Amino acid sequence: MASTIRVRASSNGDITEVQALIQHPMDSGFVKNAKGETIPPHFIQQLTFEHDGKNVFAADWGGGISKDPYVKFAFKGAKKGDELKISWVDNKGATDTTTAKIQ
Amino acid sequence: MNKIDVGFSATRRLILQGAGAVALIGLGNLPFGLTPALAAANDKYPEEAFKQKSDADVIKTLYGKTAEPSDKVKMDAPEIAENGAVVPISVSTTLADVTSVAFLVSENPNVLIAKYNIPAGTLPSVANRIKMAKTSNVTVLVEAGGKLYSASKEVKVTVGGCGG
């Protein structure tokens, strides 16, 4: 299965800027479907970014994050060609992981 | 690339009761050692904080201290959001020693949207997209040097969307 995570990480020499887009319904549990039934909560709870075995960014999310979430941040200490590891886990225990090369 | 399903007008309705149902079903089912790196790298998921119904309760649960408004916390949010399902909001700050950033929407059924942990070496600047049920105050909290700072702004929502 194709990864749910799309990442673009680009370094300008000092700072690495990271943008990630993840495919996930992010159902909050407050929304009803067309039949009036509540759509059960299903959302990513934790998202982490690791570089060189070290955590560089970690998100704790609730159901208030938009569907197919997007996040952007930047960190220091990486160079072009380095790998960035991205993982998420949702409230049902599903996970996905991918790695991206810093460009 | 991020198409929002606008097919269900009924899905826009909120159910205020049953908020507790967001109670993270399945979290307990996580097998041990499934994502050791994740567990080691991240703090425990702040489940209680995500259930709180007011800014004050979120701040108390998450940080246990009070936030002080600061003009060094810069929030970038639209004046008017046409689609409450996708509201782009970002924050940056000139404060030093930032350890975490959190986003709160006062009028959402669960006020806390997200908390980001910022280790040393990571810049105190985060952008994300959030859902807003209706027009509301949006607050960002920045934890820096052991203290808590905040900035707030009202964002008007023309079409609510606490879902997708």
Automatic annotation (TrEMBL), chain A:
SUPFAM superfamilies in UniProt: E set domains
Residue intervals of the Sulphur oxidation protein SoxZ domain: 6-100
Recorded superkingdom: Bacteria
Pfam family, one: SoxZ
InterPro entries, alphabetized: Ig-like_fold, Ig_E-set, SoxZ, SoxZ_dom
Protein name, UniProt field: Thiosulfate oxidation carrier complex protein SoxZ
Organism: Bradyrhizobium valentinum
Lineage: Bacteria, Pseudomonadati, Pseudomonadota, Alphaproteobacteria, Hyphomicrobiales
TrEMBL record, chain B:
Domain named Ig-like SoxY: residues: 60-162
Listed NCBIfam families: SoxY_true_GGCGG (TIGR04488)
Protein name according to UniProt: Thiosulfate oxidation carrier protein SoxY
